[in-house]
Each structure stands twice: as structure tokens, then as C-alpha cells.
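Database export, one record per block. Field names are fixed; values are copied verbatim from the stored entry.
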Amino acid sequence: MPQRRKILVVLKGYPRLSETFIAQELLGLERAGFDLTLISMRRPTDKKRHPVHDEIKARVVYLPEYLHEEPIRVLKGVVSGFRMPGFKALVKRFLKDLPRDVSRNRFRRLGQALVLAREWPDKGTWLHAHFIHTPASVTEYASILTGVPWTCSAHAKDIWTSPDWELNEKLGSARWTVTCTKSGYEHMRTLTERKEAVHLSYHGLDLARFGHFAEQRPCRDGSNPADPVSILSVGRAVEKKGYDTLLQALARLPADLHWRFEHIGGGDELPRLKALATTLGVADRITWKGALAQDDVLDHYRRSDIFALACRIAANGDRDGLPNVLVEASSQRLPCISTSVSGVPELLVDGENGLLVPPEDPVALAVALEAAIRDPKLRRTLGDSAEQRVRAHFDHHASIEQLSRLFDSEWQRAS
């Protein structure tokens, strides 16, 4: 095996409860023998941590989140940058980018890159960005300035909300880029001549952490008001998750059906969604749990009857890739109802291991929910098939092995 290098991994924020798939990948790379230092562009805002965060040994370095908050640190970065061999190339690239994106954010990424290049933690010899939008901007600028090569993991929002010109530039600059859905993979390949440098790599799941759930769920069918069917959803309350559509679907369910809905997650839209639930007359059947740690989420998967997520494409183009919560729920034999958006059909096949409806369609979603509520046998069949698919095709070890090969090929080439 070639000698592995210290990798500086640039992240938008760390740790984040909504990004367990990234944390699991970082832990997997550490266990595979990679030496990581995490570079976070933001300080954490979540009050809780998942167990996986405590298992990751990598040191975390926080860049200035806003340049005016640490002016001395930024100034030192600028002065140091003048003396670096890539400074002229960086200025040229920045002046090329700025007219296409005249924003404070563009200056912030330049400042963060200058700070990173000056401080250069732990003598890193490789750069890797998670997300191809702002973290990749910092990473690419630091790469230009220092001459250290970089690679990238692209996901969902970052792909679909970035302009084509920016994706083209970064895909041409990075040694390689991986992404987690076929739709994102195909889109990025249309934007670069270096198609061989774009790779599809599903995140997968740590199946040891999400072990087989052997217990039989109750045969609830919504007919008993004292024992309602339990519907669960996990996700941030943001536009692309489609929670307003899900609430409208729940409000359309027949009056003779008895159900409860639990939502796990934070998000800016929670107040609006709670008000909408009241307007729709379903607020008394809903519990808003807020953000929970992974062990608590796993417990909810196991004691729920149905998982629902009404993914959509947001007005700005933002969308999910393949939501990890669907993979997690499926691993626990929990039947999932979702929409045919982005990478969801790469996991769920309608009528075989889940139920899929068009996005933005509360009527179709209500029909699917009613079918699942009334038929516990259907739920059991879908849930069993979903678990089989996850354990056969979404083991995260396959993704870690693929990433290891990609990194090791670079080390081999260099040596």
C-alpha cells in the first residue's frame, strides 16, 4: 500500500446532526487508516451530538465564520498570502469569479482560504471538500495558493443550486469528485470534459450501528382510536422536505382512520408548519420532537409503523440527493412512503420495497398513506423488502473502499 498523506477535510460546519452521512464517512476513513484533520467553516449550532461524532478522533480547526469577527487572523492570512507562490494565480481566479458572483460570500471564502493557507494545520498534504459549493470554494482557493491538490464529495443542494460555470471550473480543477446519487452524477458529467474524474458513490449505512430489528410490529390498521397507527418523519423543516405537502395529505385522510404523526428535526419552517397543522385541524395528532441524537432516532424507527418524507424540488432548485433517513428507516424494516425526486427511486421501488408518489401531490400522498395505514400486511412486506435491499446494496463499507481506492491511486501516482 502506498504511503498515505495527511488529509485536510473542509466542511461547512462540524458537527451537524443533519449530516450523519458525512460523520460516518469520516469515521470509516479513519478506520481504514487515513489521517484526517477537519477544517470547519462554521462553529456548531446543534446542542446535541451523535455517538459517531465522539468516535471520530480527528482534530477540528474552525476558520473565521465571518471575517470581521477575527480581523487580526484574517489580516495575517492576507499578509502571508502575498509571499506564497500561488498568490498571483489566486488573485486572477478570484477576479474571474467575482463578476459572476458579486457577493460578500465570495470575499468570505477568499478570506477563509487565506487563513487556512497561512495556518495550514498538521502539515496537511491533501485537501478534500465536502460539498461542491462554498466548502469547495475555500478548498480550491487554498489549493491554488499552496499548490496542494484537492478532491471533492458533492451531495445534493450544493450541486443543484450552484451555477453551471462554477461546477465546470471546480470539476476541472479537482483531481476527482464523487457524488451520492445517479442524477447528480449524470448532471455533473454533462458539465465537464473530464467525465472520468466524476464518480458515483452511495454513502451507505453502518449496518453494525443499524442492526437488524427482529421484533414484529403490532398489526394496527387505524380502526382503534386507542391504538392509532404511528407515522414518523425525520428531517429539517425546510422547503425541499415538503412537510407542508405531508401535512395537507394527513389532513385528507378519512375521518375513520386513527393515526399519530411524529416529526424529528429542527428547521426554520417549524413555526409555519405548526400553524399550518392548526389551520388544517390536525395539530392534536402531531408531536414535534425537535432534533434528537441518533440513538433516539433509531428507537423511533423501531416503534413506528410508517415512515413518510415528501421530498420536492425547492424554488431555488435545491433538492435532496438520497435522504439518509430513508436508508436508515428501511434498515429497520420500517416501510417508507416518499416521492419520485432525485435519488429516492434509486432506493425505493414503488410497490416492491416502498410507496412512491409524485412530488407536490397531497392527494396521491394521502392515498398511499391510507393504503399503508389500513394494511399491516402490506407494511410488513414492504418493510422486509426494504431491509433486504439496504443490506444488499447500501453497506457503507463499499463506499469507504471506493474512496480508499481513489485516494490511494493518487498517492501511488505521486510516488
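Remark 1: The longest helix spans residues 396-414.
Remark 2: The longest strand covers residues 6-11.
End of record.
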